[in-house]
Specification:
DNA replication, DNA replication complex GINS protein PSF3, 0% strand, nucleus, single chain, 6 helices, GINS_Psf3_sf
Length: 167
Amino acid sequence: MRGAGGGLRLTGWREPGPAMSEAYFPVGPGLGTEENFLSLDDILMSQEKLPGRAESTLPRLAVLMGQGAGSAESIPEVTEEGTRDTGTGHGTFIARFRRIMDSSQNAYNEDTSALVARLDELERALFQVGQKGLNDFQCWEKGQASQITASTLVQNYGKRKLTEVDG
């Protein structure tokens, strides 16, 4: 059970998170009554594997390291790396991402300063991207946009697909 770089990774088995195919219901502006104390950065960072080294003895962990009386074969399959980390922060991240994007898309020509004040830097940037997309769409819908352009995400995806076919 060593993480990347040879460090011991001490995590327990967790139930899988909600499926991506679950029903999606839009929400009104605001982050809602439930407060997620973790920011998007915190959720993403908690999923990173960091090498570590214990500077003191950790009794009864020899089994996890494949040493001592037990062995790695005695660990049940449900605790294998692929099944153990399924959905630990995934559901929270998706819910928070949706809430921020929905809030940005449903706040056209409204004062969003109170809403944005509670967000961290990454979340503010995400909110601003959503607001820019909404404003661009509103301008296009009113005939104020001269030309529709593909987003950089779509352009990069097309380039990546072409290089995969060529290479």
